[in-house]
Design a protein that fits this description.
four-stranded antiparallel sheet, 3 domains, Uridine Diphospho-n-acetylenolpyruvylglucosamine Reductase, domain 3
Length: about 350
């Protein structure tokens, strides 16, 4: 099924007699969902774009590349830096904006501006009964009631099928520079990232891989130059500064996990305490890319190490298997959390037909 209007989408969900596998471009799908495929790619196009108000309303099946092009024409962007994991996962297809929101896909700039969900102003979606639901709008404001915008971001299509999303967008900065710090071991290199993030110098990226720590600053040219000088004096190691497109290319590699691309083995996405990041990787003896100052680890391991990953992360975060076939993809939920999730799902999808098994 490939509806082209919200009404057709609602009709398709309402008339479903079995489970539905909701899919945008199929570039971010994880888990073990089953059912008849319901494609959202037919729901495509920019509905409203107001550059002066920094707001964008777009249909859920719109390709991310189309959104990026529209924003670039006005020197604007989605601030949360959408990852493209097709190369890592060995997939083709077109990434859609609905898939980005459904997975809460967020890149290196999350340390400064927050995740995808923090840029979402409003959503329209069809719940498991075929009812069209709207929440939020085109301005950021505090309101009473349920914040379904935040609930839908990261729900992976298990609560409803997105049909439209509105965002706040960001102007492109005048300048960008990255401090490349070498000569430090992993403990010291990650500590340098934490020093940078804890400083008043508004860091927009803090990552480490291949023996290098990367610290990014963006903004007005004079401000960037000043902050680079201040950070250089604080982080230690051997510092080289790269700017403009050279800097941007480094962060595309981090964003898309390029250092682990094409290598055999399992890839785990581990969210943890930045102070625990070096110890977890050392315990697993993994090849790793650290993002978010160490709060996000992409770890490459030989197959069959799920138990070791769970033991290393226990009490310090959670791990998701993003590439590989062994065991469960998502970490088990605590009983009280599982009960809460089941209650929410029962409200939005009482028949249990939307992406059944996706989060299991």
């Amino acid at each position: 099924m490939r509806p082209t209007t919200e009404a057709e989408l609602a009709e398709a969900v309402a008339g479903a007699t079995g489970p539905l596998l909701v899919r945008g471009g199929g570039t971010r799908t994880l888990g073990h969902a089953v059912g008849e495929v319901l494609e959202t790619g037919g729901l495509s196009g920019v509905e409203v774009y107001e550059p002066g108000a920094l707001t964008l309303v777009v249909r859920a099946g719109t390709p991310v590349a189309e959104v990026d092009r529209a924003l670039a024409c006005e020197r604007q962007r989605l601030a949360f830096e959408v990852p493209d994991l097709r190369g890592l996962l060995g997939r083709e297809g077109v990434s859609t904006i609905g898939g980005v929101v459904a997975t809460n896909a967020s890149g290196p700039r999350r340390v400064q501006v927050g995740a995808c969900r923090d840029a979402c102003l409003g959503v329209r979606f069809v719940d498991g009964t075929g009812t069209v639901v709207k929440n939020g709008g085109r301005v950021m404001k505090n309101v009473t009631g349920y914040d379904l915008v935040k609930l839908m971001a990261g729900s992976r299509g298990t609560l409803g099928v997105l049909s439209e999303v509105s965002f706040k967008v960001q102007a492109l900065p005048e300048a960008e520079a990255t401090l490349v710090v070498e000569g430090l071991g992993d403990e010291a290199g990650l500590a340098a990232l934490r020093v940078a993030l804890g400083s008043p110098f508004d860091v927009s990226g803090a990552a480490r891989h291949s023996g290098r720590s990367l610290i990014r600053v963006e903004g007005m040219a004079g401000s960037v130059a000043y902050r680079v000088g201040q950070l250089r004096a604080r982080v230690g190691g051997e510092v080289t500064v790269v700017e403009a497109e050279t800097s941007a290319a480094l962060w595309r590699e981090v964003r898309d996990v390029v250092p682990l691309m094409g290598k055999p083995g399992e890839v785990w996405r581990i969210a943890t305490l930045p102070t625990a990041a070096a110890g977890i990787v050392a315990q697993l003896e993994a090849e790793a890319l650290w993002d978010w100052g160490g709060g996000l680890i992409w770890a490459l391991l030989d197959p069959g190490h799920g138990a070791e990953v769970a033991a290393a992360v226990a009490g310090r975060g959670h791990a998701t298997l993003v590439k590989g076939e062994g065991g469960p993809v998502f970490p088990p939920e605590a009983p009280e959390v599982a009960a809460l999730v089941a209650g929410v799902k029962a409200k939005f999808d009482p028949r249990g037909i939307l992406n059944r098994g996706m989060m299991g």
